[in-house]
Amino acid sequence: MMTPLAPTMPPNPAPSETAAARPAQSKTGQTDWPAESLQDLLAQLKQAESEAVANATANTSPKRLVEPAAPDLGKVNVITVMSSKGGVGKSTIAANLAAGLTQLGRSVLVVDLDPQNALIHHLQPQSPRPVEDAASGIANASESASDWRSLCVATAAGPALLPHGLIEENERQAFEQHLDSDRYWLGRHLEAMGLADGAVVILDTPPGPSPYLRQALAITHQAIVVSLPDAASYTALPLAEKLIRSYVGERDDFKGCRYVINQVDRSRQLNRDVSLIMQQTLGERLVGMIHRDQSVSDALAYNRTAVEQEAHGQGFQDLVRFAETLMGQLPCASEGSATL
Ligand SMILES: Nc1ncnc2c1ncn2[C@@H]1O[C@H](COP(=O)(O)OP(=O)(O)OP(=O)(O)O)[C@@H](O)[C@H]1O
Ligand SMILES: [Mg+2]
């Protein structure tokens, strides 16, 4: 006999109280996966969203209205770089992909959605005021700064960069609550920028579930999951896929996820074996395999990307090839010279 399902959802939860909206990291730094099933989380998210819309509509201030409709980004390609685990090379890959696609003729905007604010150190700002550039960004811009173009930083490698900006802990908490309550905050700001058809937007995210990843996946067309060739990363891959399904929802314009294995060390048997298993499991969805290369991490000290460096190292060459592979899979730009 089937046991009736016990109700798992408290009545009328506030958006910030849902399991999916709770901070993903415990105090010990370990990911706190919600105990609820994915279906329960989706139901909670849906309910929280409709309540957020209802609350915003009830508010008399028009500035606080939440738009339920998905933003229209036209023919812009949005790519999210993500991972279940931290320190796997997301920011390195996002910066190098942005630089590589720029060199191949695409207009690229790279957005740092991680409070670590690290991307500005990968992509050297072309500015006489680099200190101020490092501190200001999308997280500390006033909501009235509706056009994010004024926040864009030109970089030595070519792509335009929207830094996250440096914020205090209490500001981060308030910012994340805001992101939780306004699903299309990022999408609306990008829409307001009026990016050219064919432009590419690359979103760098923190590891694991977060309000930042949720914002990114609400509008992304393609997710790039970065993994190391080790057992822990391999076992975390299904979690990444679950997260994608949960955050993307039902969207026809989402073209699925691709995988990159980073920091491959062929001198290690386990690295070779896990890489092979991933290759066999993922097939064509594995779009890049990047070797561990000391000069890749050294480049960070000089704010350089692979395309700016003399790309002799295997890791640099892999990064350049990865950008070429992805370029071949992107829808064509209507005009090759489209600018942001
Ligand atoms: N192919 C590579 N070879 C050698 N070192 C690498 C390679 N890729 C990344 N690294 C180094 O690994 C470290 C972590 O990289 P990165 O900051 O890009 O990871 P991340 O996934 O963005 O981290 P986080 O989860 O904290 O955002 C950096 O020191 C970087 O230089
Ligand atoms: Mg990072």
TrEMBL record:
Superkingdom of source: Bacteria
Region of interest (Disordered), ranges: 1-33
Entries under CDD domains matching the protein: ParAB_family
Signal sequence region: none
InterPro entries: Cellulose_synthase_operon_BcsQ (IPR017746), DNA_Partitioning_ATPase (IPR050678), P-loop_NTPase (IPR027417)
PANTHER family (alphabetical): COBYRINIC ACID AC-DIAMIDE SYNTHASE, P-LOOP CONTAINING NUCLEOSIDE TRIPHOSPHATE HYDROLASE
UniProt protein name: Cellulose biosynthesis protein BcsQ
Lineage: Bacteria, Pseudomonadati, Pseudomonadota, Gammaproteobacteria, Pseudomonadales
Gene behind the chain: bcsQ
